[in-house]
Amino acid sequence: MAVTGRIDGVPSEVWDEEVLAPQFGYEAEALLPHYVSIEKVLLLEYRRMGLVDQEGTAAIAGRLDELTPELIRADPRDNMSDIFFAMERHVARGDTAPFAAWHVDRSRNDFQACGQLLSSRENVRALADGLIAFGRTVAARAAELPDSPMPGYTHAQAAQTVTPAFYLSALSEETLDAARRLLATYDGIDRSPLGAGSMAGQELPWDRERMAALLGFRQPQPHALMAVASRSWALGVASELSTFAVLLSRFTTDLMTWSGAGFGFVDFPDDLAGISAAMPQKRNFPVLERIRGRCSHVVGCAAQLAFAQHGTPYANSVEVSKEAGRHLREQFAALRSALRLAHTALATATFRTDRMREACEGDFLGAFTLANRLTLEAGVPWRTAQVIAGAYVRAAIAKGLTAATPDGPLLAAVAEEHGHRVPEPDALLAGSLDADKAVRVKRSAGSTHPDAVRAMLAAQDRGYQEVSGQWRMRAETASAAAARVDALLADPSTDSAAESTEGSAP
Amino acid sequence: MAVTGRIDGVPSEVWDEEVLAPQFGYEAEALLPHYVSIEKVLLLEYRRMGLVDQEGTAAIAGRLDELTPELIRADPRDNMSDIFFAMERHVARGDTAPFAAWHVDRSRNDFQACGQLLSSRENVRALADGLIAFGRTVAARAAELPDSPMPGYTHAQAAQTVTPAFYLSALSEETLDAARRLLATYDGIDRSPLGAGSMAGQELPWDRERMAALLGFRQPQPHALMAVASRSWALGVASELSTFAVLLSRFTTDLMTWSGAGFGFVDFPDDLAGISAAMPQKRNFPVLERIRGRCSHVVGCAAQLAFAQHGTPYANSVEVSKEAGRHLREQFAALRSALRLAHTALATATFRTDRMREACEGDFLGAFTLANRLTLEAGVPWRTAQVIAGAYVRAAIAKGLTAATPDGPLLAAVAEEHGHRVPEPDALLAGSLDADKAVRVKRSAGSTHPDAVRAMLAAQDRGYQEVSGQWRMRAETASAAAARVDALLADPSTDSAAESTEGSAP
Amino acid sequence: MAVTGRIDGVPSEVWDEEVLAPQFGYEAEALLPHYVSIEKVLLLEYRRMGLVDQEGTAAIAGRLDELTPELIRADPRDNMSDIFFAMERHVARGDTAPFAAWHVDRSRNDFQACGQLLSSRENVRALADGLIAFGRTVAARAAELPDSPMPGYTHAQAAQTVTPAFYLSALSEETLDAARRLLATYDGIDRSPLGAGSMAGQELPWDRERMAALLGFRQPQPHALMAVASRSWALGVASELSTFAVLLSRFTTDLMTWSGAGFGFVDFPDDLAGISAAMPQKRNFPVLERIRGRCSHVVGCAAQLAFAQHGTPYANSVEVSKEAGRHLREQFAALRSALRLAHTALATATFRTDRMREACEGDFLGAFTLANRLTLEAGVPWRTAQVIAGAYVRAAIAKGLTAATPDGPLLAAVAEEHGHRVPEPDALLAGSLDADKAVRVKRSAGSTHPDAVRAMLAAQDRGYQEVSGQWRMRAETASAAAARVDALLADPSTDSAAESTEGSAP
Amino acid sequence: MAVTGRIDGVPSEVWDEEVLAPQFGYEAEALLPHYVSIEKVLLLEYRRMGLVDQEGTAAIAGRLDELTPELIRADPRDNMSDIFFAMERHVARGDTAPFAAWHVDRSRNDFQACGQLLSSRENVRALADGLIAFGRTVAARAAELPDSPMPGYTHAQAAQTVTPAFYLSALSEETLDAARRLLATYDGIDRSPLGAGSMAGQELPWDRERMAALLGFRQPQPHALMAVASRSWALGVASELSTFAVLLSRFTTDLMTWSGAGFGFVDFPDDLAGISAAMPQKRNFPVLERIRGRCSHVVGCAAQLAFAQHGTPYANSVEVSKEAGRHLREQFAALRSALRLAHTALATATFRTDRMREACEGDFLGAFTLANRLTLEAGVPWRTAQVIAGAYVRAAIAKGLTAATPDGPLLAAVAEEHGHRVPEPDALLAGSLDADKAVRVKRSAGSTHPDAVRAMLAAQDRGYQEVSGQWRMRAETASAAAARVDALLADPSTDSAAESTEGSAP
Q1: Could you tell me how far CA C263 lies from the centroid of its own chain?
Q2: Pairing of β B219-220 and β B191-192
Q3: Which helix (H) or strand (E) holds B247?
Q4: Chain B residues inside the 8 Å CB shell of C155
Q5: How many CB atoms lie within 10 A of CB B482?
Q6: Backbone phi, then psi, for A162, in 5-degree steps?
Q7: pLDDT above 60 for D504
Q8: What confidence tens digit (pLDDT) does each residue in B372-385 have?
Q9: For residue D208, what are the contacts with CB-CB under 8 A and spacing of at least 6?
Q10: Can you give the C-alpha Rg of chain A in angstroms?
């Protein structure tokens, strides 16, 4: 049985090997259940339009339910190695031949666009779940260490005293933000292309609103051309994945530094550690390099996807939908893997508070506070207070002192050189340079003060609850729609739309 | 006057030439007004906290108001070629010396982050205005040609009959979508970093909510570290620009094809045409190549920005804020230029409806309709109808026929070969292949039918009104905040917050 | 049996699933033969250094020869899911225990770097073969149509008359260039890392020159750190692949245009054509979209590889060698596929010379020649000649004339307007605008004149012979080295180096 | 005076502002001298072909010599804001009108391609000089510290003892390699497009070999279409810049780590240090962030350039030559800046050998040597030796020992547990773990042994001499060609080619 009268012959071997067969394999694996869902909704529409009765409907629905990746195979001769034809053939070979008008006024273009979107929506929901689970773990780890001082860094130099809780709560906040933004992205693309036809719309009175609802979409995609030609939605999703990957790579970079030589602030369990085959003293954490490498891949996939669409015609094209589309699939996989590794790493990391405290005490992280106090308590103009504090640090380093060994007379002398008298230099230094006090001296909202961090974690906890509720709702919409379709197929009496006299085919 | 006691000397010549002076120049040009706004808000806070009286406030505000790009200059000796110090110096050299505590408990980190965000928000608003103006022009051009047939293409082959209105309304729909998505992006990043300090928060009772409101932000950024370390917001903005640029490049590609040899569907006025210096017959449209080239640059900037952030520490860093940040600035400029060119091109393009109609008639764009009718009217099963229609096309081409010269007997003969009788083949062909009828045979929502396109354009018009209202509101928030700051600086009695006893400095 | 005393336990499940097992699988498939080659060379060195006798050598060599991807399996408990340990275990479990010093003074770092390089060299050679075969096919197709006029385009407008031979010979020339450049790239990276150890060099007197020669390398990599830390060589290879892919995408773009609606210059056989499932008149050539999509991927892989290395420490790292390294593997696969498709497409394409000629005659491609003649034969200053020729074209179009219907009096009138007399305007036009003459009027080296094209094709033919000879030599070097290793393992008496007393271990 | 008869009017304001005027400005600044060179060579050809006498030649040459960026201005009305027409106009307005045939048979296409190539060649030569100067400085710094132990790292953990000389000599080796590869890139693209005309070749007997020689090219570009359509050469250059930038970014990453908190191995002078405006203790090295940021930009430019060419027609196009071309210009600028900063940073860095030694002694970098010795001196099988050495390290850490405090009995006990007796455990440990000995225990070519490093540096020195000689030769070829052109213009009698009767115009 031919599928076309336009060309002869079967796909060439090269064409089949390089393109058709792998494409078929991918679609059978990843898109088949979505294609079946779509076919069922189309079938309901044919029934509604009076082109088939319930018996014919049930026969096709039954055949559709049999379809599995194992059942159908790419075959250049039988189905031109095209899954759409393979599905059509499977149905046609059932005991009951499908009704004559089956697939009339239909196109693969909106069908494929719809399948890709359903699959991507599913991937986005799974990713959101992963993000939320990750963020909650991070927040839980943060809550463990709200008071313990660690150096905060800028430009690779120790800058101010913070805490592990403060640092990790930033990662949690970013993750929560990402899970929220993804919600808007999801809603923005949650539009059904079905019923757009090849590109110009359809000729029968398909009910696009109803088809959208039966597939769990918020609404139909308004423009038929846009429905099949546009993959702006893929760019939107890819960008969000990329943005989060960049973020994750930055935190991973800090973990690489802090678990590495020179710091030793963070440790990971043996079952995540790598050894050297030859250097017996090594304990490596290649898991961090893997995370960062995969984040880089996630970023690269977004760039590739955009460039692969750039400069193509605004039309249905395999270059955009399939060739470019592969970058989105790879991106999901890469981020899922990076996130799983990062989740494990953060869940099992040990924070060496002893080493962090030691690092705080080895530097002069309170110099900013010292300058503040010189101004506020000793009336030194701020810029001069900066100069005095800086000059004290310099002189102290020259004398081999650290923050743990404050030298009041030295401060007094330095201040004197700059024309200022400091009343109680020892107290001033002690209040400024002590690591534990340094954590509590900050008082603004969002600061490293343990109370401020606790407040942020509490707000995040509410945020996670809310956002995961939102994602759950969306997952339920999808599954409820699928259940409704099966119910309608089984029992047309439940289908109020079918009663309508409007919109039935001529 | 030194600005630090930590290091000696002035920046080296190389460092100044390659980095500091150009950075200063950029900031003086693009960020200075925002920096002045921030300084004014800080000043209000110092007054509120009781660290300065109204006279001192007025003196500094006066000096701040004098600042222009022409007034301040990078100078390694005087200000370390740093605009923050240059501003500080300018104020310090006024007739009234600033109060001692001026700039106490302050940092450049949240200051710069805030300036960059204010500038980017402004750029985003300008871009949104540009998008809306562009989209409206496109919609207006679409409304001109709702009935005129043109070929719609898939895979570079003519596919179905559409209209210029249908095609252009897709561009308008995408543009409207972009203007809407940008709104969410804007709102998502409209958070003030001010008051985060260097990274750990601040020591005085700064009112972060109030500072945010005075700068026209929706809210403060909740986490101090995130406020200075994160540039996720830049990635979010850049992604939206990139997504639109990809889209624009695709429409531009079609315009290149349709204004080029082989088509001649679209023409541009002489003042946008390029000539050849040597080939006198040439009339080129390099404007399209320019648009596409700039779109490619927009896409590349987003990729570069992401990769420039990837793998950096999650910390305040010039690598992220300034080196990576340049890609965002370039991206705005590139998209602004591409959009301006595209706006001009689309506003002045001529659509050659004669040539489009001719192209429709030279092909068999109604074959889909023919197959539909074979099924619906002659009861031929759909797949067989496809084969018959395809075989008819093939046979007609072999005979040198086109859609404009239908051959009923040929159709009947072909159908017969496949075992089907077609009652009125001439009528069937005439109804299927006629170009004008083809536009009206589509009836689904979002289709190329003139009524459907009109409905879409009407909905878009409402969309543009709504979205431009939203953008206007955001612009007004920003300007109202600036006006409020100036009023508060002039007249403290209007400042209810200043009355509060809470939150004044020790 | 433990492999380390430094850590306990086995890799965690997540770590194994996400990283170790897939890595093992890849290496078993792609690198195992190379790893075996390296082990054999190391074994020869141990024998040469007197650490093992011939019997011990033969036992290990025998075990190594048994290794296949099927034999060894990732196993967290037995081999930490590391192929190096799996190979070590396999040898250790032979009937004869390996000598005590087996693997002494060895490292996985140079071992893995060496395996990756051997594999990449092999891929480069295969690619070069593919390029040469492709280029020769293109040149052969070019030779078929040296005289047939077709329009040459600039800025999407017809510019000058050329021939298919001229156009295709440019593709062949670029391909030949690529095959040549790849030779230099290959030679530049053909340096053995073996003997660099972990990073600092080795402690026994390994003969690095000899090991390099036995692996078929030109020389050892001079610096131990560079040998394990650098993957500049991968960037060099990736860049060449990207450059060729860009090129191929540009020719493919022309083929898309020329096989598309509006042109129809190029046709492909049915077995490469795609159909529409719904539009029976369609004959699509998605193969071109596939080629271009894969070329885009090749370009993206190079970008990703570079960015994945960027900002990493200059050290042996899995982030660079394995995570980034995957982009090179994918790139080879993508280009191989694109090239195979392009080869098939070009080998089977039909060039519709009738349509090309028609297009030439429908435009004024000879206007440049006309202007030239106005200057050279009628003494009109060049810029004025341009204006006259342009004005003639404009007036002729307005009158509905084409190049095939020259109008001497019109030319004379136009010239007159610009103050010049043209003696024989009809002859001038005829000589300038005729499509066949236009091909022969060009006479410079490298021009579209059939003789010039034949000369280029002849030079290319010599070029292909030379460059394929060069590639053959390199392939033979590699296989000769492998044969020599097996001979030496079997018969130590053939090993002159082993006789040397210098360089034996303490 | 019109320049064309094909279109009316002047470029629109938008077109001029966004595109033509900036393009003109760039070309006037960067390409004008090259354009003048080309015009002179063309003039010599016109004279040779007998189309102008020496007087006419001298008049035009004189006018050409007057051209400066200040003299010519973009003017939509006068020159269509096109530099080619502006130059033509300037010459035409001289006292002597140019001969009628001036610019006959010429095109802007090969002219512009030639100008771009001349400019890029110049940039490549300047970059090569910069690379060589940088590499020599690095090598000189390496030579200062051949014996001083520092930890070498893999996976962020200390791995083996190396020296600053060893590390820096790798950077020098990579730089030397880059300077060499660039030579091949240069030679591969050193082909003149001149004489290719618009795309199809030329009609007069231009001597393409001679024109190439007079412009200092090695040879003409063989194919006319390739000469104007291809920018593969730009991709080749861009790739080399990107590869070096990746490399430089990796070394910079190490410098960031080593000059940062936790290490303090490297220090930079105050005039390269950044301060904090608020944290008086900070001494930052933002120069490293700037270098890395610019390297990222260099990498991104190569990616952008490739993607901007991807999918364009293989034809002369402004999208490829000008829009895409800007990425190459930016890339040169970015790498020049990064290299200049890196040169300054490395020239002035201080290496803190005390801290490096301390770090060596705090770890067990000699464990590999220990395992080697257990095998070679105590006969312990290698894998067991690894386990014993690892277990010793673990036990020693548990006891709070470092490499500086070896514990023979502990080693003996650990070995015993694994069934081996170690005769002189104290001596074994001392010989293995001592930092200074560790540097000398490596003996392979390319190792960290001071003698091996000295040998590499000596070889590099020869390499720099050779490669800089090669670059000097290329610079001289270019300047000699320019001198020859001026001589020929002044005195036709020196022009042997002009005497030839062959090849004169009809």
Answers
A1: 30
A2: parallel
A3: helix B232-259
A4: 274, 282, 284-286, 289
A5: 16
A6: -130, -160
A7: no
A8: 999 999 999 998 99
A9: C444, C445, C446, D192, D194, D195, D220
A10: 31
From C380's Cα to the closest Cα of chain A, the distance in A is 43
Q: Over the stretch A472-505, which tens digit does the pLDDT of each residue have?
A: 999 999 999 999 999 999 998 877 765 454 455 5
* Residue in D91, D203, D210 to test binding to C, most C beta-carbons within 10 Å: D203
Share of chain C above pLDDT 90, in %: 88
Interface touch A289/C319, C-beta < 8 Å: yes
Residue A441 backbone phi and psi in degrees, to 5: -75, -20
Residues of chain D found within 8 Å of residue C388, distances taken between Cβ atoms: 5
- Let me know: does A368 contact D280? Beta carbons within 8 Å: yes
Which residue out of C42, C89, C259, C296 would a mutagenesis test of the A interface target, given it has the greatest number of A Cβ atoms within 10 Å?
A: C296
The string of DSSP letters for C155-217 reads TTEEEEEE-HHHHHHHHHHHHHHHHHHHHHHHHHH-EE-TT-TTTT--SS---HHHHHHHTT-
Nearest to C263 among B262, B280, B311 (CB): B262
Mark residue D367 as left, alpha or beta (left: phi above 0; alpha: psi -120 to 50; beta: remaining): alpha
d(CA A171, CA B194): 20
Tell me whether C271 touches chain A (CB under 8 Å). yes
pTM for the model? 0.97
Residue A323 has, within 13 A of its CA and on its CB side, a CA count of: 30
> What is the Cβ-side half-sphere exposure of residue C91, based on CA atoms within 13 angstroms?
24
Question: Which residues of chain A are modeled with pLDDT < 50?
Answer: 499, 501-502, 506
Q: Number of A to B CB contacts under 8 A, please give it.
A: 419
- Residue labelled with tokens 């928030």: B477
CA C217 to chain centre: 21
Q: What is the pLDDT of residues C467-476, one digit of tens each?
A: 999 999 999 9
In chain B, which residues have their Cβ closer than 8 Å to the Cβ of D276? Answer: 4, 107-108, 198
DSSP class per residue in B59-125? HHHHHHHH--TTT----HHHHTT-HHHHHHHHHHTSSSPPPTTTTTT--HHHHHHHHHHHHHHHHHH
Burial pattern C354-382, b for ≥16 Cβ within 10 A else e, equals ebbbbbbbebbbbbbbbbbbbbbebebbb
* Dist. CA C176–CA C132, nearest whole Å: 7
Interchain proximity B344–D14, CB inside 8 Å: yes
For residue B319, the SS3 value is helix
Q: Is the ipTM of this complex over 0.90?
A: yes
| Contact residues for A406 (Cβ-Cβ < 8 A; gap 6+) | A426, A429, A430, A433
What is the sign, positive or negative, of the torsion defined by CA atoms of D309, D310, D316, D317? negative
Q: Residue for token digits 């792998």?
A: A22
Take residue D150 and report the two structure tokens written for it: 């520092």
Closest C-alpha among B230, B235, B234, B233 to residue B313: B230
| Contact state of A368 with D278 under an 8 Å Cβ cutoff | yes
Mean pLDDT for all residues in chain A: 94
Residue C311 three-state SS: coil
Chain C closest-CA separation from residue A31 CA (Å): 18
Judged by CB atoms closer than 8 Å, whether chains meet at C359 and B393 is answered as no
The SS3 assignment for A192 reads strand
- Kindly tell me the burial class for residue B330, based on how many C-beta atoms sit within 10 Å of its own C-beta (0-12, 13-18, 19 or more): middle
B281: contact with D, CB 8 A cutoff: yes
Contact D154, A285 (CB under 8 A): no
Contact criterion met (CB < 8 Å) for A18 and C337: yes
Are C193 and D354 contacting, i.e. CB atoms less than 8 angstroms apart?
no
Task: Report the percent of chain D where pLDDT is more than 70.
Answer: 96
pLDDT at B338: 98
Nearest CA distance, A218 vs chain B (angstrom) = 16
CA distance A215 to A113: 13
